[in-house]
């Protein structure tokens, strides 16, 4: 990131520690044209969220960029009203999340965490007590086949799995092009040996996987999610596992992150749990930093970018851009 900015001496990069006080950074915020922010709420104090209060301190701000596909730390509606563009880095960590997803499928199916725990505990036990299953020949159902889902499809096929997918945002041909057989959600739940979530957290997906959805899954099926907390009901999932209807789960995202140590799901041996780390790799962080840097520079140069989350802000933004730089951005007509 630093190397890219060095090629643009006309751009000044200022890093603000999250422990700073807003008042101490007033001059920087007052002058800022672009704002890069973490997309993780647990890593970012609320005073730094890109909301109406922060925008009031940054009258020259033209764009906000998040460090991932999520944008939980950004009030998009407030930014749109202010004529501030919001961008994410969707796809920059897709390979990392996809590999984590396959790791969870393998881990739960082969009972790796249980094996590790039992071995460290010592004592006498039979290897047959920890017998797992192969992925080959199993059907994996992907709920969402975007940047991450299509990579999961490719990895799953390498393991000899059948891949089906439900994605209401894509037509059947696109789903096929991305490596899966398109099906309705009801068929996906009924057919899948493993159900894996790769959809965004939105109004229409909150609580999508409730008790009825888990009940519709095949007996003994596995549930894996690297999407967002709140899309599945943690209580309903715990009930489905406790009853034996589901065979196991791999969970990377939680309602509260990190989850409390007394969380029922953390006490279940057939649950592999991680702390929203699916996309946290050296390679992904490098990609995100590079993508974000280039995107911010191109935006300040007046380009219209593909990962723009609020294109409806463009007309107001274009006028503000002209007021600051004395020229209109490339696609001011938008």
Automatic annotation (TrEMBL):
<feature type="domain" description="D-isomer specific 2-hydroxyacid dehydrogenase catalytic">
    <location>
        <begin position="23"/>
        <end position="309"/>
    </location>
</feature>
<keyword id="KW-0560">Oxidoreductase</keyword>
<feature type="domain" description="D-isomer specific 2-hydroxyacid dehydrogenase NAD-binding">
    <location>
        <begin position="102"/>
        <end position="278"/>
    </location>
</feature>
<dbReference type="Pfam" id="PF02826">
    <property type="entry name" value="2-Hacid_dh_C"/>
</dbReference>
<comment type="similarity">
    <text>Belongs to the D-isomer specific 2-hydroxyacid dehydrogenase family.</text>
</comment>
<dbReference type="GO" id="GO:0016616">
    <property type="term" value="F:oxidoreductase activity, acting on the CH-OH group of donors, NAD or NADP as acceptor"/>
</dbReference>
<dbReference type="InterPro" id="IPR029753">
    <property type="entry name" value="D-isomer_DH_CS"/>
</dbReference>
<dbReference type="Pfam" id="PF00389">
    <property type="entry name" value="2-Hacid_dh"/>
</dbReference>
<dbReference type="InterPro" id="IPR036291">
    <property type="entry name" value="NAD(P)-bd_dom_sf"/>
</dbReference>
<dbReference type="InterPro" id="IPR050857">
    <property type="entry name" value="D-2-hydroxyacid_DH"/>
</dbReference>
<dbReference type="GO" id="GO:0051287">
    <property type="term" value="F:NAD binding"/>
</dbReference>
<keyword id="KW-0520">NAD</keyword>
<protein>
    <submittedName>
        <fullName>3-phosphoglycerate dehydrogenase</fullName>
    </submittedName>
</protein>
<dbReference type="InterPro" id="IPR006139">
    <property type="entry name" value="D-isomer_2_OHA_DH_cat_dom"/>
</dbReference>
<dbReference type="InterPro" id="IPR006140">
    <property type="entry name" value="D-isomer_DH_NAD-bd"/>
</dbReference>
């Amino acid at each position: 990131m630093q190397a890219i900015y060095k090629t643009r001496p006309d751009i000044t990069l200022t890093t603000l520690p999250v422990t700073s006080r807003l008042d101490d950074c007033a001059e920087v915020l007052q002058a800022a044209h672009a704002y890069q922010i973490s997309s993780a709420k647990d890593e970012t104090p609320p005073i730094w969220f890109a909301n109406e209060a922060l925008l009031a301190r940054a009258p020259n701000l033209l764009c906000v960029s998040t460090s991932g596909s999520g944008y939980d730390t950004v009030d998009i509606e407030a930014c749109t009203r202010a004529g501030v563009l919001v961008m994410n880095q969707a796809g920059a960590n897709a390979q990392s999340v996809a590999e984590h997803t396959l790791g969870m499928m393998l881990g739960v199916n082969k009972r790796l965490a249980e094996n590790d725990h039992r071995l460290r505990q010592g004592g006498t036990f039979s290897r047959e007590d920890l017998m797992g299953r192969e992925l080959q020949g199993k059907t994996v159902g992907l709920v969402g086949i975007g940047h991450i889902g299509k990579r999961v499809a490719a990895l799953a096929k390498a393991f000899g799995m059948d891949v089906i997918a439900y994605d209401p945002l894509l037509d059947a041909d696109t789903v096929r092009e991305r490596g899966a057989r398109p099906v309705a959600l009801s068929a996906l739940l009924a057919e899948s040996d493993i159900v894996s979530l790769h959809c965004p957290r939105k109004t229409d997906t909150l609580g999508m996987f409730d008790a009825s959805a888990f009940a519709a899954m095949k007996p003994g099926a596995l549930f894996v999610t690297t999407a967002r907390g709140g899309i599945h009901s943690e209580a309903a999932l715990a009930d489905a596992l406790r009853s034996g209807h589901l065979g196991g789960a791999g969970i990377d995202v939680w309602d509260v992150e990190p989850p409390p140590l007394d969380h029922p799901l953390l006490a279940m041996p057939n649950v592999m749990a991680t702390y929203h780390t699916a996309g946290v790799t050296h390679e992904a962080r490098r990609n995100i930093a590079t993508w974000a840097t280039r995107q911010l520079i191109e935006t300040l140069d007046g380009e219209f970018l593909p990962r723009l989350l609020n294109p409806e802000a463009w007309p107001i933004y274009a006028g503000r851009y002209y007021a600051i730089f004395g020229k209109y951005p490339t696609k001011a007509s938008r």
